[in-house]
Amino acid sequence: MKWDIEKIKKEVKENLSEYRYQHSLNVMEEAEALAKHYDADVEKCKLCGLTHDLAKEFNEEKNKKIIEKYNLKKTLLDSNYKNLVHGYIASIIAREKYNFDEDMILAIRYHTTGYVAMDLLGKIIYLADKIEKGRDNEIVTEARKLAYQDINKAIIFVITNQLNKLESENKKVLDLSYDTLEFLMEINK
User: Fold this and answer.
1) Which phi-psi region, left, alpha or beta, contains residue 114 (left: φ > 0; alpha: ψ -120 to 50)?
2) Is residue 70 exposed (0-12), middle (13-18) or buried (19+ Cβ within 10 Å)?
3) How distant is the alpha carbon of residue 94 from its chain centre?
4) Which of 46, 103, 116, 124 is deepest in the core (most CB within 10 A)?
5) Which residues contact 14 (CB under 8 A, 6 or more apart)?
6) How far is CA 67 from CA 74, 91, 108, in A?
7) Helices (H), the chain
8) How many CB atoms lie within 10 A of CB 136?
9) pTM of the model as a whole
10) 46-58 in b/e burial notation, b at 16+ Cβ within 10 A?
11) Mind listing the pLDDT tens digit for each residue in 138-149?
């Protein structure tokens, strides 16, 4: 299937602040570079990078309506899911509005946590979101370097650092992040 990326760009821009739209363009660019490096589907990677945060700035009321309409888990409205709900909603929009393939839906839905049995597309979107050129600190620099050497090691590095940060701040960590880390460590032995 062919998608009209320029039309999707325009629609994504209409739903995001300039800052968030620029982040989405940066993720799209990084996803494209990773796709070329790992011989993945460039078009799918670009589209997922572009749309991964399209619901990031939706208000709680809009999120609630979409969750109810598509019969998603009500727990997505809990404060523990505050930083995850946008991935679920963006994946619904990508499926319903743009007819994205199932692998694209999963990559968008779980771009904040990763997921067990992540495919290459999922790994690329997860990592592109974390290392895009608008982000800059020591962890990002190291992850960026690892990303082009061993994508699994790069994701293990990023998740480990995220978990350590959340735990040090006494924030709740979802089991999905631990499960993803365990999965990647197992396949990377």
Assistant:
1) left
2) middle
3) 13
4) 124
5) none
6) 7, 12, 16
7) 5-15, 18-38, 42-51, 60-69, 85-98, 102-109, 120-131, 138-147, 151-168, 175-187
8) 11
9) 0.94
10) bbbbbbbbbbbeb
11) 999 999 999 999
- Cα(59)–Cα(36) distance, integer angstroms: 35
pLDDT at 10 > cutoff 90: yes
How far is residue 96 from each of residues 4, 77, 89, 90, 122, measured CA to CA in Å?
A: 15, 21, 11, 10, 19
**Structural domains of the chain in order of their starting residue, each with its CATH number:** 5-136 (1.10.3210.10)
Using the structure block, give the residue that is written with the tokens 């997922």: 48
pLDDT value for 83 = 81
Residues 14, 153: Cα–Cα separation, whole Å:
36
> What's the one-letter identity of residue 102?
E
Q: Hey, how many other C-beta atoms are within 10 angstroms of the C-beta on 101?
A: 16
Residue 151: closest CA among 45, 31, 38, 36? 38
